[in-house]
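Duplicate of #3305? Posting structure anyway:
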């Protein structure tokens, strides 16, 4: 199935090339995949190809062994993809790829309900999982030789609550990520208004007792963190408050606000909305945040001191922008609009501003977009 796209160029390259491409060269083809929710019309993981020279998307047959795959990552050494499966009995699957063929080679419990995010440690021998509904973090040890799970997950419950009773009656882990020195695991908890830090021992693949790395404003509902690619800054998006906080990292695992939170919503917006995804360009100059309900993307310039300045707010061109993916080359931003079931493309200008680019492609129930290779 193909869907034509008007005047779209995706820059950069995936995988090895004979010669390095210029900053604004387009690859012949880009291999992507989309995960999403079966209850919203998805049929498993959807392999995708985009050819910027012909301005067309092409979808392969969905991978039925990956239902309700709301997030995934790739192991840089073994080439395996780890996908979460949301549900009361959460699962994590490992897949090996051969072109558009995805083969599930492992399937293990996340030791919690509704896993929604995963992260690899710096050695590639431990996989952390955020279990949203059960408010816990799980750690899965990986075989160094194969990347496959080598033991059942160990679970580490969060504790805490917040003042927004329908969303914060208890803990809700939403994001996990290892510190640059690999000595700690951060976990962002929407229900507890806290970023926790768990001591991590890479040699034994174990987590210690968590401590608070940051207490977010009460009722703000922190959701995800994006780390600056070159400087000791991090950016925390708050789902319930529709804000982003710029943070200084260090000494790990401490996170210290650099300035008051800034709104992700356009001035004067009065409707209901929930902040969603957050992304930073490879040079660390611009930050992008999505708003679900307002259905917009906010663009911020990142100053040399790490603080944020609003640049633009633009329509997501679809409904409920849950995830964003900056493509290699950094001149295209893809947006996963969950409720409209579309992936929509934006051209990224040198000043960070976005322009809609092409009609997008259908991806029912889409929750995230990944790079295959």
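Output from current build:
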């Amino acid at each position: 199935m193909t869907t034509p796209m008007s005047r779209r160029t995706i820059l950069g390259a995936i995988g090895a090339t004979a010669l390095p491409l210029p900053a604004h060269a387009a690859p012949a083809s880009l291999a992507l995949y989309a995960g999403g929710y079966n209850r919203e019309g998805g049929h498993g993981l959807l392999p995708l190809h985009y050819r910027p020279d012909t301005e067309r998307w092409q979808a392969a047959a969905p991978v039925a062994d990956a239902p309700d795959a709301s997030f995934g990552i790739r192991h840089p050494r073994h080439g395996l993809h780890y996908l979460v499966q949301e549900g009361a009995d959460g699962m994590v699957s490992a897949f090996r790829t051969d072109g558009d063929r995805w083969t599930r080679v492992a399937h293990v419990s996340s030791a919690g309900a509704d896993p929604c995010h995963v992260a690899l440690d710096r050695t590639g021998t431990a996989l952390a999982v955020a279990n949203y509904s059960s408010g816990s973090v799980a750690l899965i040890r990986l075989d160094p030789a194969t990347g496959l799970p080598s033991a059942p997950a160990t679970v580490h419950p969060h504790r805490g609550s917040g003042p927004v009773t329908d969303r914060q009656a208890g803990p809700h882990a939403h994001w996990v990520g290892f510190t640059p020195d690999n000595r700690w695991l951060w976990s962002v908890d929407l229900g507890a208004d806290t970023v926790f830090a768990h001591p991590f021992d890479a040699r034994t693949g174990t987590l210690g007792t968590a401590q608070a790395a940051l207490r977010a404003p009460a009722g703000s509902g922190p959701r995800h963190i994006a780390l600056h690619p070159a400087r000791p800054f991090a950016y925390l998006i708050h789902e319930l408050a529709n804000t982003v906080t710029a943070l200084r990292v260090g000494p790990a695992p401490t996170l210290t606000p650099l300035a008051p939170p800034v709104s992700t919503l356009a001035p004067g917006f009065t409707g209901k909305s929930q902040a969603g995804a957050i992304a930073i360009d490879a040079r660390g100059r611009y930050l992008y945040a999505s708003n679900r309900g307002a259905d917009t993307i906010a663009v911020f310039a990142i100053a040399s001191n790490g603080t944020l300045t609003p640049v633009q707010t633009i329509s997501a061109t679809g409904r409920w922008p849950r995830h964003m993916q900056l493509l290699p080359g950094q001149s295209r931003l893809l947006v996963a609009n969950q409720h409209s079931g579309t992936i929509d493309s934006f051209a990224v200008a040198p000043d960070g501003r976005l322009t809609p680019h092409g009609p997008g492609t259908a991806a029912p129930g889409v929750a995230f977009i990944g790079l295959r290779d």
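Confirmed duplicate; merging threads. The domain at 31-274 is CATH 2.130.10.10 (Methylamine Dehydrogenase; Chain H). The chain has no helices and 32 strands.
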